[in-house]
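Suppose a classmate hands you a notebook page containing two proteins, each written out with its sequence and a corresponding row of structure tokens. How would you begin to make sense of it? This section walks through that situation. The first entry is reproduced here exactly as it would appear on such a page.
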Amino acid sequence: MDVRYANHPEEIKRYNTDELREKFLVEKLFEPGHVHLTYTHVDRMIFGGATPTTQELTIKLDKQLGVDYFLERRELGIINIGAAGYVVLDGEKYEMNQYDGLYVGRGTKEVWFGSEHPAQPAKFYLLSSPAHHTYPTVKIAKKDIKPLELGETATLNERKIHQYIHPNVCESCQLQMGLTMLQPGSVWNTMPAHTHDRRSEVYLYFDMEEDTRAFHFMGEPQETRHLILKNEQAVISPSWSIHCGTATSNYTFIWGMCGENITYTDMDHIPMDQLR
């Protein structure tokens, strides 16, 4: 498990491109037969990918977290962005088609990931945050989600927001998670930009062609920076940072956050004339 430490906003003003990528960009999440995880001290989130092939995979993080098992004091969100697979939680199997999600409550001792067809593996995106209470595990099928339809073609941001782990769908301690699909011809995921000083976030960009690139904008509103990502890469977004992006074609991204509250609309919008 890779570990990333928190950074003061004044620090990144001095970072060059390589330093910025080293601190905030995660380039490898999905590798056949492996689990790749990143622990960020920004709100102590753990995120990454599990890509099972011929054998089931699990997460073993006890010594690193000072607990007896991974979810002893944590909750977990899962979205499958690959082919059909399944998740086994303490012996109970959940079928997971592409874009299906799962909320896993604190106290679940065994978590196993499998693919229906090893040659076409599932790709489980994982996001975990500390939890103070145990809420029920909930399967969230994409077909059952009524998306929020926002934006318009004229502003290049026509998109559908699918809320997975959200008060409208299931209970959680502090974890929120969803999937946003940009429509063909649209490339902006959020503009005007905003911050939410009470929550931190992680973005996973995917469903991109080999040559497609996403430009993720971050930093304080008056001191912005950017990262260039390719398919299936993720960005850590601290609470003080804007987090918006555009790309050379349409794409899909998963947003996930945790912090002081679970109010999705609790954000501070940045007027366009304040961005620099």
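The notebook's second entry, a different protein, reads as follows.
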Amino acid sequence: MGYIMELRKIVGSRPLIMVGACVLLLNNDKEILLQLRKDNHSWGLAGGSLEPGESLEQAAKRELFEETGLKAKKLQLFHVFSGENFYYQYPHGDEVYNVITVYLCNDYEGELQNDEREVQDLSFFDMNKLPSNLSPPDVPILEYYRRMY
């Protein structure tokens, strides 16, 4: 998150429009991979903010690999989310209005490996048995996915 961290040095915690990408990664049993985040102690999707010069698909693949150790072989654009429902204030006070491009992935390789800086745990979940402590920005994405599939 280098670019956003550099902006934060200038603007402090004021709200930023943060463009990013995340991955709804499905295993063979159609379970969704979630990560237990260290910053808010909630389960969420692998993803993060766009870096300068990077495409959204590149950001999705990079974040998936950094946070989970998995490499996406193929991504499919699912949906783009934005608006008032995607305002979020991080536990340390930084505020963002997220613009999130979500990709679906069921073609991947590698073995699960936590990013020790950001991730406490990784686990696959049945869509009907998601944990109660979901990361707030991911709730509307998961609800939308559930309605669509």
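A careful reader of the second entry would note: Residues 56-68 form the longest helix (13 residues).
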